[in-house]
Specification:
- With 331 residues, the chain is mainly alpha-helical.
- The chain is built from twelve helices and two strands; from the N terminus they run H-H-H-H-H-H-H-H-H-E-H-E-H-H.
- It folds into two domains: 159 residues, Cytochrome Bc1 Complex, Chain D, domain 2 (Orthogonal Bundle), CATH 1.10.760.10; 132 residues, Cytochrome Bc1 Complex, Chain D, domain 2.
- The protein is globular.
Length: 331
């Protein structure tokens, strides 16, 4: 009787309704395309995202560490900053980052706007100051015109800069992954092995932290629940913000969207492959040792989370003038 009622309901709702019923039972939701965006502001933000003149060296841009040709990251254990400074932590992907509960591994930035200002003024990253960055932009007539068109004022502020970059980053979502197509009703979008990997992902408990549209990013969890995580990396996680010992080694759960592109893994970048990452997470977080076959199936599932990558014309940046401060790459 219950089965008959479900079939009848699905028939009445049609294909879309049936797909919604199926999705409602799953812990992961399809990535939705951006619905609201200020196009003019996002276009300005795109230029700023790619502009290395916001750095002291005139060489490092947002795209240096969050390369949109490489899954929104740099595929390094830790990023390279000004004067080849070794960064303290692995660069998270910028793709789908608007879905995160907070920004950075330790959540020290509440949103994309706050995050965008951090690297510019960090001496180990872009090594500039907000004042100098704004001075550079003010010296470039093309930017002065565009800021006035977007914000209706002759003044340029760091608040406008970070707002524009954040608006662009909001557009960097990756819908239409094979797994999303499967969730939406295309049962041939993933293979039997990939589906088996998803079932293992659910039944083993991975979905307790990796769920929702971003398959992560919605909570902070301790790295090493069952078994302590051994690392030489000095990052303390959330404890560095709260000062609470209970928050030590608690990090924002990373998104698993496009995870096959965002290697190496973990906050210290110590897991180079998905196979290694799945093995470590199984043992340390779940107390489970996956067999080679199980591991391969989970990895196969994770690769179905790669969606459409952002594509657009490369922005042509307005040229500097004689008044533009000269970059200092070796200072």
């Amino acid at each position: 009787m219950k089965l008959t009622k479900v079939i009848t309901s699905a028939a009445l709702l049609g294909f879309a309704g049936a797909a919604q019923l199926a999705m409602a039972a799953e812990p992961i939701a399809p990535v939705e395309p951006v619905k609201e965006v200020n196009l003019a502001e996002a276009e300005l933000g795109k230029k700023l995202y790619f502009d290395p003149r916001l750095s002291k060296s005139g060489f490092i841009s947002c795209n240096s560490c969050h390369n949109l040709s490489m899954g929104g990251t740099d595929n390094l254990k830790t990023s390279i900053g000004h004067n080849w400074n070794q960064g303290p932590i692995n660069a998270p992907t910028v793709l789908n980052s608007s879905m995160n509960v907070a920004q950075f591994w330790d959540g020290r930035a509440a949103d994309l706007k706050e995050q965008a200002g951090g690297p510019i003024a960090n001496p180990g990253e872009m090594a500039f100051t907000h004042v100098l960055a704004v001075d550079v932009l003010k010296s470039i007539p093309g930017y002065v015109r565009e800021f006035k068109l977007v914000y209706g004022t002759d003044q340029i502020s760091i608040d406008q800069v970070t707002t524009a970059i954040a608006e662009f980053e909001k557009t960097l979502v990756t819908p239409n992954s094979p797994f999303d197509l499967w969730l939406l009703g295309d049962k041939d979008a993933i293979t039997a092995d990939e589906k088996a990997g998803y079932e293992l992902f659910k039944t083993s408990g991975c979905v307790a932290c990796h769920n929702g549209q971003a398959v992560g990013g919605a909570s902070f969890q301790k790295m090493g629940l069952v078994e302590a995580y051994q690392t030489k990396n000095k990052a303390e996680g959330l404890a560095g913000i709260t000062g609470k010992d209970a928050d030590r080694m608690k990090f924002k759960v990373p998104t698993l969207r496009n995870v096959e592109m965002t290697y190496p893994y973990f906050h210290d970048g110590e897991a180079q492959t998905l196979t290694e990452a799945v093995d470590i997470m199984g043992r340390l977080q779940l107390g489970r040792k996956f067999s080679d076959k199980e591991n391969a199936q989970i990895v196969a599932f994770l690769k179905t989370l790669t969606g459409d990558q952002p594509t657009f014309n490369l922005p042509i940046l307005p040229p500097s003038t004689d008044k533009t401060p000269v970059p200092k790459p070796f200072d």
